[in-house]
Amino acid sequence: MDKVMELIKRSQEGDKGARDKLVQDNLGLVKSIIRRFAGRGHEMEDLFQIGTIGLMKAIDKFDLSFDVKFSTYAVPMITGEVKRFLRDDGMIKVSRSLKEIANKVRITKDSLNGTLNREPTLEEIAQELNMEREDIVMALEAVGEVESLQKTIYQGDGSAISLMDKIEEDKNPNEELLNHLVLQQLMDKLEEKEKTIIYMRYFLEKTQAEVAKKLEISQVQVSRIEKKTLLRMRQMINN
């Protein structure tokens, strides 16, 4: 076991000295992450404190049995903590029009779900409402109701790693790579069909219909396997 893993193990066993050492050694990581949130109306020192909280949560939640570097796990945890703070602090102002769009989308989604006997795609919702898909995603993101349009593969203490982050203001290739690395670690534990569906849906961004055609199964089957697999992936990383 290397030095970092040993410190994490000791920290999770209650060694405050090991915990403090891990925090101190990773403060540079926190600083590098919060820079992308500059200019949001908050002092950088406040964001630094929030990011540090995310770091400490990552230390407490890190699973030593996963074959993944701690920094790979910590980046989305820290980022998620800062994003949650900004959202909860009211930095995202939701206009009446965005709320109305989000409400229409939810109603249309439920209606199409009953008609199609499956979850509608973003494209199908956009076509039904005669709207641009980007406008729909923006409205849903603004009111915090992304639901099935933004699947979550990790959820813990309010911090999330999303498979689809359609309207992120500043695309960070390094963060996207790290998120995919975490996802890849989880995928290694899946059965072959489950792995294929998740890969095609969230790496290749294929529709359920395209996946169904490739695997020669029904779209309903793809939808059921996808939901079941995503739930199991959340359980794997939370347990």
UniProtKB/TrEMBL annotation:
Pfam families: Sigma70_r2, Sigma70_r3, Sigma70_r4. Residues 46-59, 207-233 form the RNA polymerase sigma-70 domain. PROSITE patterns: SIGMA70_1 (PS00715), SIGMA70_2 (PS00716). Keywords: DNA-binding, Sigma factor, Sporulation, Transcription, Transcription regulation. It comes from the Bacteria. The keyword Chaperone does not apply. One of its GO terms (molecular function) is DNA binding. GO terms for biological process: DNA-templated transcription initiation; sporulation resulting in formation of a cellular spore. PANTHER family: RNA POLYMERASE SIGMA FACTOR RPO (PTHR30603), RNA POLYMERASE SIGMA-G FACTOR (PTHR30603:SF17). Sigma factors are initiation factors that promote the attachment of RNA polymerase to specific initiation sites and are then released. Belongs to the sigma-70 factor family. NCBIfam families: PRK05572.1, SigBFG, sigma70-ECF, spore_sigF. This is RNA polymerase sigma factor. It comes from Anaerosacchariphilus polymeriproducens. The gene is sigF.
